[in-house]
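Exercise 7. Given the components listed, write out the predicted structure of the assembled complex. Treat all entries as one system.
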Amino acid sequence: MPLIRLSRLLFAAAVLALAGFASLPAHAGPFEDAVAQFAEGSFADSEEAVGKLIASGNPRAAQIITALQDQRLYADSDTKLVFIKGADGKITSAATGEAVADLPDNASKVKLNNKLRRTVEAAMAGLTLLSPDLDKRIQAAQQVFKSHEEAMLPTVEAALKAEKNAAAKQAFAEARAAILLFKADAPDPDKLDAIAVMKARGDQEALALLTAMPAQQSAAVNSAIAGAKASIDRSLAMWSMVQNGWYGLSLGSVLLLAAIGLAITFGVMGVINMAHGEMVMLGAYTTFVVQETIRTRYPALFDYSLLIAVPLAFLVAGAIGVLIERTVIRFLYGRPLETLLATWGISLLLQQAVRTIFGANNREVGNPSWMSGAFDIGQITITYNRLWILCFTLAVFAILLAMLRYTALGLEMRAVTQNRRMAASMGIATSRVDALTFGLGSGIAGIAGVALSQIDNVSPNLGQSYIIDSFMVVVFGGVGNLWGTLVGAFSLGIANKFLEPFAGAVLGKIAILVLIILFIQKRPRGLFALKGRAVEA
Amino acid sequence: MTPHILTRSLNRGALIFLLVVAAAGILLPLSNLLLPESSALHVPTYLISLFGKYVCYAILALSIDLIWGYCGILSLGHGAFFALGGYAMGMYLMRQIGSRGVYGNPILPDFMVFLNYKALPWYWYGFDHFWFAALMVLLVPGLLAFCFGWLAFRSRVTGVYLSIITQAMTYALLLAFFRNDFGFGGNNGLTDFKDILGFNVQAEGTRAALFMLSCLALAIGFLICRSVVTSKLGKVLIAIRDAESRTRFLGYRVESYKLFVFTLSACMAGVAGALYVPQVGIINPGEFAPGNSIEAVIWVAVGGRGTLIGAALGAIVVNYAKTVFTSGPLAPYWLFMLGAMFVLVTLLLPKGIVGTVNAWLEPWKAKRLSRNAESAAREDGVIKPNMAE
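Answer.
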């Protein structure tokens, strides 16, 4: 049983390694013997050499074994010298690591067969289990967890005993449990413990291991397995709900961000702004320009690029919005269908203009450091950029709500929304309110562009991909009511993500569109419709 | 009744339009087929196909004008009906390929072999008969429009809301037809056609015949539209366009009128699509793109909404301009042109070309009208777009 022998070797290696890496160079004798043994030429010798190398605990052992694995180890059978050919073609002495000018003429590759290859692989895993680097140890433990190679058990147990770090300890315990599950002669109490460990882990991999366990088990173990499986199934189902919910919230926040400006212009002015998506695009391109400037002039500011881009994008998109309102839309009030066509034309113009200036290809917008990366909660992974976008969306929403409620402009906007003619009679300059509203809506679209540049491709077509979704949100939520837009965006986002596992992404989206079309039949003015005689006008 | 309808729907403008269409439909194919290529009057085959495409667009524009110009329904999803008609025809053409495909499968079209279909999906049954496909060209868009309209009009979805959900409809269909497992060829669509009714689709004679048929369809479609808009029903439609609530209060069932004209218009769009596919040689999901439908609306706006002739004219003019611009060095500027067209037409030329010309001719017409008192020159074509909503 070479594996058993190997495991003994590994165990010895573990004990040696634990005795302390600091004293390693002292064991030069056996290490050099082991290296020289590769020159003997037989597979059995090579295998023995691998074992001795690990036992020697020499830091060069890993390098030599890797070289053997990659077929870069050469040995001269006359002089018993062994060489490593680096990936770059440079030759070094295996024993000392000193550079050698050339391979001796009669040096040949140390051969591998399948049995030796297995030994080498197990040896490598054993080496990394004892690595001083914490991440490598955990990685190796996870590797063992997946392969649950019985031969690794003594090493894993030794490593577990010596481990101080809690995370690594956990990983080792799980690796040990995985091995015990598959060890035919493990006593039942050990197996029950192992099953409990799997149950606590509770993820897809643990479930897979439990399912793959050999069938012949005692009754107690079998019932424990069944219990653990049921428990893992439950927790997996729960987590997948949570995950869908999170994805839904994330999608909803994107929809809300894209639709919120549209809701304002549509709500206050009854104007369908087909160029709304292009305002989002302009915001994204503003972010791109800001980042480019920062990259070339003030690289230190890169982490603040988005903070700088937000007000700029608001100004750029808002200014263009006011310009559009003053030059085109103003003349088309009371003709919503014509407005729709004219703004579609504007969207084509803006797209083509951006394409001419920046090119048709995607532009790269980077994530600042605080927006990249992810963290885990239980079984789900949450990326920082999605989380920030959700927070940002809610902040924008809250600010907008406060603005509508507490500022003079907000009051005027609400008045115009509810009854334009009455508002005009009360002395509100409705045309000024219209221009400012359009600017505000466009500016918010620009801000949305800054956020969306973090998760989507920045291209001239960016806006187009959001325009229909944004309309759906506004139509679904109802006009003239920001809360409707909020509810609409999040319910569409969540519904979409919960449909996806059953129907697939595209069919899910189609289903949502059909549902909205049907919903409109029931409530033609959306979830939260304005009431009163002004609505019919 | 028939002569009555004809005299009522054929005013001077309509007659001139029909004559022009007939002349084009006869002379162009004849010059293509009979005159030698060296002749100055010879029309090359590629132009026949190109004009055939324009004529199909003109039929589509006509169908949009019928509902938008006369009933105030702005559909941003008419391209969907066009494409559905096109797919029905495309399916027939696919079945005609038979075993001449790349994979030589006698039952399954190439893309199905490629996508590992084992049997023909049930909804492809019947499409090896031309009459069935022709029926589907009318039925599928008509039925979709009927169901959609029945739901939408009954619950009084109007104005921009209707526009948005028609756009959502075509968008949903776009997504659906892009799927490979939907059974319509995925994003490659249907192409590589060989025969139509036993004639080679590539042949000059077939192309000329298709062009003639398209012109005939345009003429018939125009006549149908004219007879609808000049009838009593047409008056109610215009009333709905100008004051929907008031018409309802007067006791008309607004939704039934709308539903009828919407379904009729969808069928026309379907026919346009069916004629378009054999001439262009391909149908793919791109035809469902919301942008296409909106572009079709601008043809109508350019030509003159609520004039029918204007719609057809607009489709031809705009598409001719598109061909000229996109094939020349000006290609990058075409979208600027198109965008500017949307803005300028709605701002400066709200009546479109024909509407504006009609307005110029108004004084002259009034003089003539007073001369022969009450004759057939009762003109309903000119509308005031400002009253739309």
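Discussion: Residues 16-27 of chain A have pLDDT under 50 and may be disordered. Chain A touches chain B at residues 270, 272, 328, 331-332, 334-342, 344-349, 351-353, 355-356, 468, 471-472, 475, 506-507, 509-510, 513-514, 516-518, 520-522, 524-525, 536 (CB under 8 Å).
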